[in-house]
Amino acid sequence: MNPQEFLNNFFVIDSPIKGVRLPEIKIEERHRKDLGLKEDCGNYDFLRALCRKGFSALGHKKGTKEYEEYAARVKYELDILNDLGFVDYILLVWDVVNFCKENNIPTGPGRGSAAGSLVLYLIGVTKIDSLKYGLFFERFVSKTRAKKTIIDGITYLDGSLMPDIDIDFDYYQRGKVIDYVDKKYKGKTSKILTLNTLSSKLCIKEVGKILGMKPEEEMTRVTGLIPKLHGQVEDIDTAYEKVKEFREWCVENDLVYSTALKLRNLIKNKGVHPSGLLISFDKLEDSCPTELSSDKDSVSGYDMNWVSLFTVKLDALGLRSVSVVDDCCSSLGIKSQDIDPNDLSIYRGLQDLKHPHGLFQIEADMNFRVTQKVKPKNLEELSAVLSLGRPGAMQFIDQYANFTNTGTIDINTGSEVLDNILKETGGCCLFQETLMRACKEVFGLSLDEAELIRRACGKKKKEEMMKFEKIIKERAVEKNIGSAGEFFWNLLLDSADYSFNKCIFEEEKVIKQDQGEIMLKDLQIGDKILAFDTKNECNIFVEVIDKMKNEKVLYEIELESGHKIRASMDHKFLCEDKQMHPLKDIILNDLKIAHSISE
């Protein structure tokens, strides 16, 4: 049972915890004077004044299309923030960021859902123009998710549904920020407890060493057999089913394995959250037990999931990359905040990149290879590089690179509006904002509904997505774009897959260009192998982008030609409907595999 369910079940009648009460935000008089405001000006009016100042700095002339668009968007956001009770939270974060500006502490430009807020951009919390880049406010705050309760005239917020603003600070000066928050909210702040559990690898390794008297080297080898799925280490009972060598070791060492099953996920020790800070309305010790860390800092006695029910969590991450960027700019005699991301000269070095060392995120091997193919020329294309480097999007690398290098894309979804939306990203649905925009502009869903779909896709919850299948397809029929509805629905399903595990036996033979048959295990990244192009219905050579060893149960399938292939239930085959279907669906729906596969 999670903390919110516990609260709902046991504190319904007379709960001492009614939700998050925001700490009192006192704006310094000097800030009001700077904006020409009176002393008795409320916090909402102060936030509006900050937005007006930022809006004026944009330079849009009254009466122009840009002016009307920006004015309507900022009014829309302010109304929602005020209605939901989030104004003081926004000002709390603004105050911290403003302290950094006044004390020359570098901060990051903003990331995550907060980048979708024009208000945060206008008041200087983020440096990302959400309208310019087509980012949606509903990703940050959605009326369908956020909840507030008013009890005895006091507003309480649902902590599990609070907006989240992540701020990256100069790694070396983060302590100054924490000291500022501590002094401003004296007795009401602390760092956050983390509880470290006995994960699958750690659990069996420790049990093997202590109970089984096994040497360190043997247990390191054994735990190395436990596979990962989407970067997450799988559980030991899952590894037992999937990995033959691991299972054989566990059978021989049954006491170790059975004991590890009993101990897994128990709390091993506690630590301190690397970035989270708590800020409470009341004295923290009145609502939450605290203790001192080894550094004599106050730490909550509850972990993040529990304290978020009644306190504000401020994410203040000390990031070395922010420090490095600022140091580099200082050595060049410029300020990092003055760099214009639209200055195309910034991207010239990426056109023929030879060495990625020191380039944040691009120095990762996959992102480096994507950069070499795409050759990003602006911020949008650079953002696409980082999106394409993820497992679920790798299949679109060549398609997007062809688009950026030639400027052309051929796409026909059955809807001209959907075609135009996808053309902006080379026919690929790389960003969740692309998905939300299509939901709204093509199928007429509200942005709040689009956000629900986005969240379902982002969290890989296909069962939640299925609720919208009928709506999307019915809207498509109403608009006489039925084929676009089918196309977009399949796109949504693909987006919900973090990665497509095309698992086949490592000794299966494939056709390598200029060499002929070769075993899968002997392929190298960069090799080109024969594959079937379902769109053009022909065989083509495609480049091997990555190889991942997935320990899955494989099944032997005999095709009509007599050819046998061993593959997982997730492996896709071309069927007679000219679509790729996973083996489990082929068996379940009695589909026919196309003859071209078996020839």
What would your notes on this structure say?
The protein has 599 residues and is of the alpha+beta class. It has 5 domains: 17-194 and 272-320, no CATH class; 199-265, Arc Repressor Mutant, subunit A, CATH 1.10.10; 340-406, no CATH class; 416-495, no CATH class; 509-598, Hedgehog/Intein (Hint) domain (Endonuclease - Pi-scei, Chain A, domain 1, Beta Complex), CATH 2.170.16.10. Helices cover 40% and strands 15% of the residues. The protein contains 25 helices and 18 strands. The protein has a 6-stranded mixed β-sheet with strand order 3-10-7-4-9-8. Strands 1-2 form a two-stranded antiparallel sheet. Helix 19 (432-441) packs antiparallel against helix 20. The longest helix has 20 residues, at 65-84. The chain is globular. The model is unreliable at 10-15 and 498-503 (pLDDT under 50).
